[in-house]
Amino acid sequence: MRLLLIEDEPNLSHTLSRALREESYVVDTAEDGESGLYHAMNWDYDVIILDIMLPKLNGWQVLEALRQTKQTPVLMLTALNNTANRVKGLDTGADDYLIKPFDLSELFARIRALIRRVHGQAREVIELNGVTVNTLARKVFQDQCEVELTAREYGILEYLARRYSHTVSRAELFEHLFDEHDDAYSNVIDVHVSAIRKKLGQQMIKTRRGLGYFVGE
Amino acid sequence: MFASSIRFRLNFWFAFMQVVISVAASVYLLCLDNSNRMQDLDASLERRLTPLHFAARDSLALENNTPSSWQVPPNVNIDAVTSRRDFLQRALLGRGSELFSKQWVNEGVYFVIWSASKQILAASPNLPESIPLPVAQGENGPINLRTIGGNREAFQFTAAQDIVLVGQSMQAMEAEHQAYVMQIMGFVLCVFVIGLLASRKIIYNAITPLEAIAKSAAQMSLGNIQGRLKAPNPADEVGQLVNTLNSTFSRIDEAFAQQNRFVADAAHELRTPLAVMLSETQAVLNRPRSNQEYVVSLNRILDAIQKLRKLSESLLTLAQLDAEQYRQTPESFDLGLLIDECIGEICRLAETKNVTIHNRVEPITVLGDPDQLCQVFTNLLSNAIEYGTPNSEVHLWVSRSADSAKPALGIHVSNTGETISHEEQKHLFERFYRVDKSRSRAGSHAGLGLAICQRIVNEHNGIISVQSENGLTVFTVWLPEPLATGHSP
């Protein structure tokens, strides 16, 4: 899952991006509203974490411009703690609102909830033919036994599982699983998919030639 | 409670004054009327007395056969007259007499003429019984007047001590006066009722807006003073009162809003470093870390703590300045030396940005709190260094203002850097205002430094101002020159 963090306080930005990366998210950061909006418009993020008090363009302006074309879930992160501001944020198109200072665990939970909602799922555990993906624990089980996957492999499987019965192109997978600084080879996805097949069986991920991969019936 | 209402008291006093004025006016009018009628009566009696007087005199001349230039009345045949009494009877009461007519009788006028020996020579038929004889008052005396038994009488003594008297009943006059009294009373009553109604209406119009004001003022509370009072006529006294109250409310409202803004801003500024500390600590504790990671993390937390410390110190300073606890007896000291000290404190920051400070402030004596003024100049200098371009110069110099409206002594701090726009200059000294809206560039500054500077300078009866043009920004602290010592170069 790929996130965009738009936050101008450098210390907070560092802390959050590191913590999110440790949760296996792919994180891009922006330090002002303008570059944040640029990122948000040009990549399909799974969630955008947006501060309000930003240089150049403030959070409201970024959100308004973004909502003209994109429906990316936005979590507003701000120190402005009053009902009017929260209502304004949600009405402008924010999906959630978190007030500084916050607990990291709550931030993570809210991000997970946003991702779930986008994919129309209500639970943290996704069942595929004989394989269980626990997105909370970030673990995969086959016949009650845990299967060890690398972070990348897990990421690919989780994304495909969330897009159950949809064909996902390599480009989409790449965009959601690698940040802008990754200069991986284009066949890196194929390498990871074949590794997953080795661990979970060849029929787990199917290939649609010329279109991409898919999981499901 | 009823008596304490302005409306009641105004109505009461209005009515009371009207009663007093009406009574006084009617008493005056009635007295005037009475005396006018009396004068008229007296004048008519006197007019009627004169021909009788002449008749008495003529009759005497006839009796004494003394030549005289009198005219015999046309209705008297002078040859047939036998005596004085006969002459008078013929002249006054006889057929065709012009002196005593039917009209006299109708008006209740009567007359009598006594001879010097108190014998009645002639009398009108309607003469009342038992008329007291007037007392002698000298020959050919003046006409006397008297009131006897409801009659008014005028009498006169002739040269021969005959007495001539004309009288009239006052009944008719009194009846007319009574009618006049009724008229006046009716009129005064009408005026009184109309006045009472009019005054009620006027008082109602004057009091009603006050009641409306009291009502809308009662609806305001400390938390809700956004509402404003309305006056029916903004130009009158009530309107002026309402305007004054409204502007007071506005100022209180503004002060509340400012206070709320300040608290919200302070909370906001406190939240960000707290968020860093909380997130960083939780993230680090999530899993085992290397020593190096701990050091990086602790440095980040330390940074946030420093920010919090500076912020809380600034807030405390402002709170103390606001509470005016800082007002100590001012001492006179050398500002040049003080600025040297400030530069000493700030030189490390200047070195990191390779900024040179040129201090051209000569020794000047000023009056004030050296600690506070040191804070002002340290603040201005650190701003000049931080917002100035690296490798640039910061200049400090003194000038004297010729403008008597300004404090005399100007201490200038200049730096080269980005120009501050006029719009931004207006807000520069507001609490929590930062030219750069974000936190990143301003570093640890919360936007309170210049607010504190302004507060301190104002406390010293001075002014702080800023000029920024073509990349050169100059902050100037204007301070009053101490009168007693003057300046010693």
Q: Which word captures the global form of chain B? A: rod-shaped
In whole angstroms, how far apart are the ends of chain B? Answer: 73 Å
What structural category arises from helix and sheet content of chain A?
Answer: alpha/beta
Can you count the beta strands of chain B? 12
Described by the principal axes of the CA atoms, the overall outline of chain A is: elongated
**CATH-level-4 superfamily name of the largest domain in chain A:** Response regulator
In which order are the strands of the major sheet of chain B placed? 2-1-5-4-3
SSE arrangement of chain B, N to C: HHHEEEEEHHHEHEEHEEHHEE
Mean pLDDT over the full residue set of chain B: 82
What does this structure look like?
The complex is a heterodimer of chains A (217) and B (489). Chain A is α/β, with parallel strands linked by helices and 217 residues long. Chain A folds into two domains: 2-118, Response regulator (Rossmann fold, 3-Layer(aba) Sandwich); 125-214, Arc Repressor Mutant, subunit A (Orthogonal Bundle), CATH 1.10.10. In chain A, 41% of the residues lie in helices and 21% in strands. Chain A is built from eight helices and eleven strands. In chain A, a hairpin with a 2-residue loop joins strand 6 (125-128) and strand 7 (131-134). The longest helix of chain A has 15 residues, at 104-118. The model of chain A has no long low-confidence stretch (mean pLDDT 86). Chain B is α+β, with helices and mostly antiparallel strands. Chain B has three domains: 6-175; 221-325, Helix Hairpins; 326-479, Heat Shock Protein 90. A five-stranded antiparallel sheet of chain B has the order 2-1-5-4-3. In chain B, a hairpin with a 5-residue loop joins strand 4 (151-157) and strand 5 (163-169). The longest helix of chain B has 59 residues, at 6-64. The two termini of chain B are 73 Å apart. The A-B interface holds A 8-12, 14-16, 18-19, 22, 31-32, 53-55, 58, 79-82, 99-105, 107 and B 264, 267-269, 271-272, 274-280, 282-283, 286-287, 300, 303-304, 436-441.
